[in-house]
Amino acid sequence: MMDLAKILQKLISFTQEEYFYKQWYQTDPLAYGTPIRSWEEFRERFPADTGIPPEPPTPVGDYLTEKAFFTGNEIEVNCFKNLRYCPAFFHQLEFIKITYVMRGSATLYFNNTSYLLTEGQFCIVSPGVEQAVFSGNDGDCVMNILLRGTTFTDAFAALLEEQNILSDYFWKMSYARYSEEVLLFTGSRDEKLEKLVLQMFREIREHKRPSNILLKSYVMIFLGEGLRRHKTDVIRLTGQEEHPYLPALILKDMKQHLKTVTLKELAAKWEMSESQINHFLKVQIGYSYTYLLSEMRMKQATEYLTKTDLSVERIMEEIGWNDLSSFYRQFKKKYAMTPYQYRTYGGRNL
Q1: What pLDDT is recorded for position 93?
Q2: What is the spatial distance between Cα 331 and Cα 309, in angstroms, rounded to a whole number?
Q3: Average pLDDT for residues 150-179, to the nearest whole number?
Q4: Pair (233, 251) in one structural domain
Q5: b vs e for 226-258, b when ≥16 Cβ sit within 10 Å of the residue's Cβ?
Q6: Do residue 327 and residue 192 come from a single domain?
Q7: How many CB atoms neighbour CB 178 within 10 A?
Q8: Can you tell me the distance from the alpha carbon of 263 to that of 275, in angstroms, rounded to the nearest whole number?
Q9: What is the pLDDT of residues 28-73, one digit of tens each?
Q10: Percentage of the chain with pLDDT > 70?
Q11: Last residue of a domain, one of 219, 238, 257
C-alpha cells in the first residue's frame, strides 16, 4: 500500500489531460478569464485557425449526474483530483461536492462572485447549485470529494443529528427544492484533514472494491474535525439572507416529532399562525407543510421496511399515518411498488 506522502507526490504530478489544458492556457490565458457554459463557448474564445479540438478530453457539461461518478449502488463516496488548467465551466450537480485545496489555490465562482480558496480551505456545494472551480498553477493540488445526494440522508444520518451549521445546511439541502447555498471553510492548512483526504483517495484508487464503511467514516471525521477545528472560519454563501437557519430548525423539529406533529402545534412553537408557517415553508424550501410531512414519513417508512421486521400496520403507527388505503396509494405512487415489494427488493429497482 502506497504511503500518503507518495500519494501526494503522485497527485501533484501532471496528467495527460492537465498537459492538454495547460497548452491552451499558455496559448491564451485571457480565454480562461471567466467561466464557460459549454466547450463550444470556450473554443469561440480562440481564433478559428488555432486548432483547438471539437471535444474536450474530460467531461464538460452543465449538469453532472451520479451515474457518471459513482460505480454501482454500494459506494456513496468518491474522491479525485480537480484537473489544473481545466477551464472553469458552470454546472450543477446531482450529488454533494466538497472541494478541498491541498496545495496552492483555487477560485470558486458562485452567485456572480469569485472566491479565492487557499491551502487548507474547502467548500461544500449542495446538489442543484450552479458553480465553477478553476485552478491554474503548476503547484496546485485541489481535491473533489463527492457524496451521493440521493442516499445522503440515510448514509450520513448522524450528521443531521448534530446542532451546528453543518446539520442546518444538510437539513435544508435534504428537503428543500431550492438550496442555493455553499459553505466555505476559510481556515489554514490542517495536516489532519489533509491526511483524511489522502486516505479517501488511496482507498478508492488502490482497491477494486473500496470499503464504503471506511469512506463514509473518513468523510464523517473530515467534516466533524473540520467544524470543530475551524468553526470560527465558516462562511455561509447564500442569496437568501433572511432566516438563514430557521427552515432547517423547523424541518428537524418535524422529523423529531414525526409520529405526532401537527401544523397547529408546529406553528405555535415557532410563534406563527398556521398559514404563516405554511407560507414560510413554501417560500424558503419550495414545498408545503403537508408535502414535507408526507415525504419525511415515506422516507422513514422505507427505513423501517428495509431495516426492521415491523408489520406495515405497525410502521404506519410509528410514522403517524392513520389511513391504510391512503398509505398504500401514496407509497405506490412514490416508489412504483407496494410496501411489501419494497421490503423484498429493498428499493433496488428504483
Answers
A1: 93
A2: 18
A3: 79
A4: no
A5: bbeebeeebeebbeeeeebeebbbbbbebbeeb
A6: no
A7: 15
A8: 9
A9: 999 999 999 999 999 999 988 888 999 999 988 899 999 999 977 7
A10: 95
A11: 238
- Domain span holding position 286: 246-345
Of residues 340, 249, 245, the one with CA closest to residue 301? 340
Res 347 pLDDT > 60: no
Number of domains the chain contains: 2
Q: Is the predicted pLDDT of residue 180 greater than 90, yes or no?
A: no
Q: Which cell is 100 given?
A: 478541498
N residues, the chain: 350
Give domain status of residue 341, yes or no. Answer: yes
Does residue 296 share a domain with residue 172? no
Phi, psi of 108 (to 5 degrees): -100, 130
For the ranges 80-84, 251-255, 281-285, the lowest mean pLDDT is seen at 281-285
pLDDT of residue 239: 54
CATH no. for residue 278? Answer: 1.10.10.60
The CA dihedral of 210, 88, 109, 216, to the nearest 10 degrees, is: 0
Least confident range of 144-148, 209-213, 228-232, 341-345? 228-232
- Does residue 151 contact residue 76 with C-beta atoms inside 8 Å? yes
Q: What is the pLDDT of residue 350?
A: 46
